[in-house]
Amino acid sequence: MNARFKVAGIVLAAGRSTRMGLTKQLLPFRGRTVLEWVVDNALASKLQPVIVVIGHEAEAVKPLMAGKAVTTVVNCCYETGQSSSLKAGLQELAGDCDAALFLLGDQPLVTPETINLILDAYNDSPSPIVMPTFDGRRGNPALFDRTTFPRINALSGDCGARALFTEYEGEIRSVEVHTSAIHFDLDTIVDYHRLLKESEGW
C-alpha cells in the first residue's frame, strides 16, 4: 500500500527515570542500548522523519544518535514533565507532516512491523488518534493527526497526551496488533530484568 500521508516519528527519551534509579535510555540490551533499539526500529519503519527528544543526561545520550538519520532535540524543560517533550518534538516537524507517532524511549520491543500496522491503519482511514491494542487493551506508540497538535501544544505537566484520549474518545481508531510489547515499558529495575530474561518470547 502506498502511503498517502506523511507521518513523523517522535521518540520521547528525555526523562529522568526516577523510578528506575538508572538512566534507562542507556541500559544495555542485545548489544545496543535500549534507546538505540527504539530509534533503529523507528528508522526501519515507514516513519519519515524520525525526531529524538532527549534531556536528562543529554551529553551521554547524544553520541548514541551519531550517524543515525534522525533529528535530535534537547528538551531543556524535561523536568517539567512529558508534555514538554511532546511539544519539543512537534516544534521540529515540517509543515507537510500529516501526523506524528509518539514512541516511548523505553519500549525496545516495539518492532517496525507493529509501527507499520499503525501507519497503514491511519493511511487507510485517517483519524485524530490511532492506537494499537492487544488483548483488548490499548498501548503505545500512539499516533496523533495534525488536527490534534494545537491541543498537544496546550498541555502542561507530566500528563503526556492522555488528556486527549477522553476528548477524542469517539474518534480514536484502534488497531489490533500481534504482540503484548505495546504494553511493556521500563519503569523499574524489575522491568529491566524481565526484559533481559523474557524478551526472546515477545
Question: Which keywords apply here?
Answer:
202 residues; alpha/beta; Spore Coat Polysaccharide Biosynthesis Protein SpsA, Chain A; two-stranded antiparallel ribbon; 21% strand
Question: Could you please describe the fold and organization of this structure?
Answer:
- Helix content is 28%, strand content 21%.
- By secondary structure, it is α/β, with parallel strands linked by helices.
- The chain has a single domain (7-201), classed as Spore Coat Polysaccharide Biosynthesis Protein SpsA, Chain A (Alpha-Beta Complex).
- The strands form 2 sheets. Strands 1, 4, 5, 6, 7, 8, 9 and 10 form an 8-stranded mixed β-sheet that branches. The protein has a two-stranded antiparallel sheet with strand order 2-3.
- Helix 2 (58-61) links the parallel strand 4 and strand 5.
- The longest helix has 13 residues, at 112-124.
- The chain is globular and about 40 Å long.
Can you describe this structure in just a few lines?
This protein has about 200 residues and is α/β, with parallel strands linked by helices. About 30% of the residues lie in helices and about 20% in strands.
CATH topology: Spore Coat Polysaccharide Biosynthesis Protein SpsA, Chain A
CATH architecture: Alpha-Beta Complex
Q: What are the segments in which pLDDT stays under 50 over at least 5 consecutive residues?
A: none
| Mean pLDDT reading | 92
CATH homologous superfamily placement: Spore Coat Polysaccharide Biosynthesis Protein SpsA, Chain A
* Count of discrete structural domains: 1
- Secondary-structure element pattern, one letter each: EEEHEHEHEHEEEHHEH
Radius of gyration, taken over Cα atoms and rounded to an integer in Å: 16 Å
**Major sheet description:** 8 strands, mixed
Proportion of strand residues:
15-25%
The end-to-end span amounts to 27 Å
Main CATH class: Alpha Beta
**Quick one: how many beta strands?**
10
User: How many distinct helices?
Assistant: 7
Quickly give the structural class: alpha/beta
Oligomeric state of the chains present here: single chain
User: What is the 3D form?
Assistant: globular
Can you give the helix content as a percent range? 25-40%
